[in-house]
Write a structure and sequence with these properties.
The structure holds two protein chains of two kinds.
Chain A: E1 12-18, E2 21-26, E3 28-30, H1 32-46, E4 53-57, E5 61-64, H2 66-81, E6 85-89, H3 93-101, H4 121-155, H5 162-172, H6 177-200, H7 207-246, H8 249-255, H9 260-298, H10 303-312, H11 316-342, H12 348-379
Parallel strand pairs in A: 2-4, 3-5, 4-6
Antiparallel strand pairs in A: 1-2
Helix pairs in contact in A: 1-2, 4-9, 5-9, 6-7, 6-9, 7-9, 7-10, 7-11, 7-12, 9-10, 9-11, 11-12
Chain B: E1 5-16, E2 19-30, E3 34-39, H1 45-52, E4 60-65, E5 68-69, H2 75-84, E6 85-88, H3 100-111, H4 116-129, H5 145-156, E7 163-167, H6 175-192, E8 195-199, H7 203-209, E9 212-217, E10 222-227, H8 229-235, H9 239-246
Parallel strand pairs in B: 3-8, 3-9, 6-7, 7-8
Antiparallel strand pairs in B: 1-2, 1-4, 4-5, 9-10
């Protein structure tokens, strides 16, 4: 025999090997612990020894389970590959039992744990296009039901879930104050600091104040606040409604005769629309404060002159636009967050995808609408 | 079935935080038997199960599995014990993003050195054992509730554990599927000699499969009956116990 004894597991004993007929005695346990090693040994045994008939003597096997069967399967398949004979002899009662429970005679190795292969580019483009088309239709339909639900609440204000709305207002607005305040203050400081570097050269330090106020109130205040809200609240809405979908709570609402849109979405939309503009205002104030800190401590401006300069170029129009923009952003974030939540189908993975998508879509919608606002403002505002 | 206790519970006080659900209970589970934990709603069956599988540490007392107190042993020993037990959760708890084959292959790949080829063959054998051969590449969302439980059972048995724990196996199943599951449990117990600990209140299953039962009661926060369910049904001194097993409100 070509395979040296030392390469075989100690449990394998070749009792006889002549004229291509081998009798292999296996001793000890054929279980989880021994299986992998024995399979390797079995492969080595089958390689290049020209075995034409293999009889495995199971008399010495103390214990056999399905892990042990893998070894016998390996040997049997090896012999089948060379059209040789394979026989088992002397199985103990335990072995006979196991062989019959798992129907060893009929066990076949499955094709493989093959993952579904990704289809080609054209199929994927087509599938994506169809999916996006369906997505768009669902979005429009959802937009319609949200509008109807909002109108219903306006006509019958008593139907609004007050407690839920107030609770959402607290979570969306008050709980966000620390992070919004911090970020806008830092943003104000950064703006003031970076611009002062240039303005100093012209002795125009004081204009830092108006730069910060205009930039923040007109653009960065609403946009940054909306981005923070998208991350905090948009994802929360998607996750909450998505998980409710998974646990059939949305179905329960429907069969109780309550419109899930009116019940779940309207409080969220109203809460966002009310709180986000105030958050934006808060952000504006804190950013001006941040700029003032830089102005007073780094640029030697007086607080009075800083504040005067802040409001010199700031018009009421800017503040009104700021409110309008943040209200629109808030409605978009709440809408897309709830939409993604309702689109959840399945389990944990789907909820994760919905949450991510809610944030990404919110960011996209925020920037898109901001661009539209910019255009409108220039040509009409 | 042997006389060796594979699980020993000693003076267990079980609960959550400050709330005590079970006060000072002790019992043994013998190797190879089918042991059922039953009782009315709120009696602490699920709590006890969670303590037995190491999900919750006891407030006091010992849970000894295969000679080791799982509440006091070191991490390594605990991991070794976990490999010797399998748990079938109420809805199967299959991972939704993986096929049945991948679900079962997960612990095998993690804890053995077998090649993917061998694992694939083993997974097929395990699925065959629960009569799900052919469903290797299905996702959990594509199969029925009863099938999910069977797949969950196949996964719980992946490493040929010494003890299998079942959390309300009949929940949500129709009578026929439930009876099939009972038969599977009996068959596996007989052929593989696996100890089985089942938490349930399904009477027909209890009478069909169990060797011994303990009944918990929330009023005493402990065990009010222990033994053969048929004997308890006919001969128990405790009215409530007889009512439970006879499924009637009359004594």
């Amino acid at each position: 025999m070509r395979t040296h004894k030392s390469l075989l597991p100690s449990a394998f004993k070749v009792a006889r090997f002549e004229a291509g007929e081998m009798e292999l005695r296996i001793q000890g346990r054929m279980d989880l612990a021994e299986s992998a090693g024995m399979i390797k040994g079995a492969r080595r045994l089958l390689e290049g020894n020209g075995i034409r008939t293999l009889t495995v003597d199971l008399g010495g096997v103390e214990y056999l389970d399905d892990y042990g069967l893998l070894v016998l399967l390996e040997l049997r398949e090896g012999m089948e590959a060379v059209k040789g004979g394979f026989y088992l002899k002397n199985p103990s009662e335990n072995a006979r039992n196991v062989l019959s429970i798992f129907d060893f005679d009929k066990v076949k190795r499955p094709v493989s744990l093959e993952k579904k292969r990704r289809p080609d580019v054209f199929t994927r483009v087509g599938e994506a296009a169809l999916k996006n088309w369906d997505d768009l239709r669902y979005m429009i339909s959802f937009l319609g039901s949200v509008c109807l639900a909002m109108v219903h609440v306006v006509r019958f204000p008593g139907t609004l879930r007050r407690e839920e709305t107030l609770l959402t207002m607290q979570k969306t607005g008050f709980d966000a104050l620390p992070i919004v305040g911090l970020i806008s203050m830092l943003l104000g400081m950064i703006l003031a600091f970076m611009s002062s570097v240039q303005l100093k050269q012209f002795g125009a330090d004081v204009y830092v104040a108006s730069l910060v106020s205009l930039a923040m109130v007109r653009e960065l205040g609403p946009v940054m606040t909306a981005i923070i809200v998208a991350g905090r609240t948009g994802s929360a809405f998607a996750a909450e409604i998505g998980t409710m979908k998974v646990s059939e709570e949305v179905d329960a609402l429907f069969t109780m005769g309550m419109d899930p849109t009116r019940f779940l979405v309207v409080p969220k939309m109203i809460a966002s629309a009310v709180m986000v503009p105030f958050l934006t205002l808060f952000a504006d104030v804190f950013s001006i404060l941040g700029g003032m800190l830089v102005g007073v401590f780094l640029l030697d401006l007086t607080p009075n002159s800083y504040i005067a300069e802040t409001f010199r170029f700031l018009a009421l129009r800017d503040i009104v636009w700021s409110f309008v923009k943040s209200t629109v952003f808030a409605l978009l974030i709440a809408w897309i967050g709830c939409l993604r939540g309702f689109q959840v189908r399945g389990g944990a993975e789907s909820v994760g995808q919905a949450t991510t998508s809610a944030v990404v879509s919110s960011l996209f919608l925020i920037i898109l609408s901001d661009s539209l606002f910019a255009v409108i403002r220039v040509y009409w505002g | 079935m042997t006389d060796r206790p594979i699980i020993q519970v000693r003076n267990l006080v079980a609960g959550y935080g400050e709330t005590v659900i079970l006060h000072n209970i002790s019992f043994d589970v013998y190797e190879g038997e089918i042991f059922v934990i039953l009782g009315g709603s709120g009696c602490g069956k699920s709590t006890l199960l969670k303590h037995l599988i190491g999900l919750i540490p006891p407030i006091s007392g010992e849970v000894i599995i295969d000679g080791h107190d799982i509440s006091r042993c070191d991490e390594e020993t605990f991991q070794e014990i976990l490999k010797k037990i399998g748990v079938l959760y109420q809805s199967g708890a299959l991972f939704g993003s993986m096929t049945l084959a991948e679900n079962i292959a997960l612990p095998i790949g993690e804890y053995t050195d077998l090649t993917p080829r061998s694992i694939a063959a083993l997974v097929s054998m395990k699925l065959g054992l629960v009569h799900l051969d052919g469903f290797e590449n299905h996702l959990p969302s594509e199969i029925s509730g009863g099938m999910k439980k069977r797949a969950g059972l196949a996964r719980a048995m992946a490493l040929n554990p010494k003890v299998l724990f079942f959390d309300e196996p009949s929940a949500g199943l129709d009578p026929i599927t439930s009876a099939e599951l009972d038969n599977l449990i009996i068959h596996l117990n007989k052929s593989l000699n696996t100890t089985m600990v089942i938490v349930t209140h399904e009477l027909s299953s209890i009478f069909a499969v169990s060797h011994r039962v303990i009944m918990l009661d929330k009023r005493v926060k402990g065990i009010i009956a222990e033994g053969d369910p048929k004997y308890l049904r006919d001969h128990s001194q405790n009215t409530f116990v007889r009512q439970f097993f006879n499924r009637t409100l009359e004594a």
